[in-house]
Amino acid sequence: MSVKTFKKGEVIYKDGDKITAVYLIQSGGANQCLIRGKKTIDLFQIGSSHILGEQVILGQSTHPTAAVATTETKVLEIPVETLKQHYESAPPTLKMIIKSLADRLRLAVNDVRSSKLEKDSSPCPEDQVAKVYGSVFHTANHKGDRSQPGRVVVDWNMMKQYSQRVMGESPKRLEQAINILVKLKLALYEMGKDPTNPDGPEEIQKVHYLDLSLVESFFEFYQYYYFKGGRSDLLKVDELCMQMLGAILKMSENEQPDRFGIVGVDFAKFSEYCKEEIGINLNNDHFNRLEGKGVFMKRKNGGTGVQLQFESKEFRSILQSWKMLREIEKWNEKGFVDMDEKEEKPKKKSSGPSCPACSADVQAGAKFCQECGHKMTAAA
Fold first, then answer.
1. pTM here?
2. Which helix (H) or strand (E) holds 290?
3. Which of 26, 162, 170, 271 has the fewest CB atoms within 10 Å of its CB?
């Protein structure tokens, strides 16, 4: 256990971060909130003698809220393993009381969180993401024209009217949501002149959906993990995992899937590709990190070496969902979907010290990774 001091406004941890320690506030206070880019949604404040990170008792692995110091705050940092040892050694009756209070607090925090998010003025609040893309899918699926192979075409005015009247979706939010699909090349706009104003500017006439199944997969994926307690961390974009998933899919482009849709990639070639293109040396921690995000693959020994086997269709759906989550984050930060934004190429990791678990850059001599909390064994 150690004592840490946080300055006013300093972030103790962010929502979605892995719980690596529990903090007992000795002096000062903290604001429990949600951090959305440059915006902060305040929930409630706590003071001295209160604990942060108690959800780990219930088996939760990530923080459901962020904590920001409201003044100079001194905390006692208790490692998770130390807390669990004390908890397990407590009398059964006391353990039951602690667990009951922690569970009641979890329900209260979730209620406050939901209430605050309902009043969130973001262009697309978290609790509305599944709704808007559900509206897009069901409207297109019900009203779309499938006469053109490989696409579903919907009249734009019909799209807006049906989504608003039947789904209760705002036309403005609907348009921005579809802009993301167009930006990611999952949809196309058919432009033209308004028949009532032939001299006016070109406007959207129809929307061509190129892969409606991916839209369905995304809102199903989002609603499942958002409304399932304790798994919202799967909706946080991990850039390294996204790069690795994109890399393995790129390497499997020319591979022919078997009758079950499974493809294989040579591990040695994938490892070399990651080293050259992403700047990481693959190890088990990287695969554990992918599995923590719901991405599983089988390693099979063969005559030519180790093969990584996976279902390509599932991996493409996951990668597309991550890309959409990243675009939604940008949308909420900027207030609109930037259609002219240039796609940034993945940056290689720096040659300095890095965490073996998450590959994040760390300071020389650091004992723990600031990103994931991994203990740096090389540190003295």
1. 0.71
2. helix 284-292
3. 26
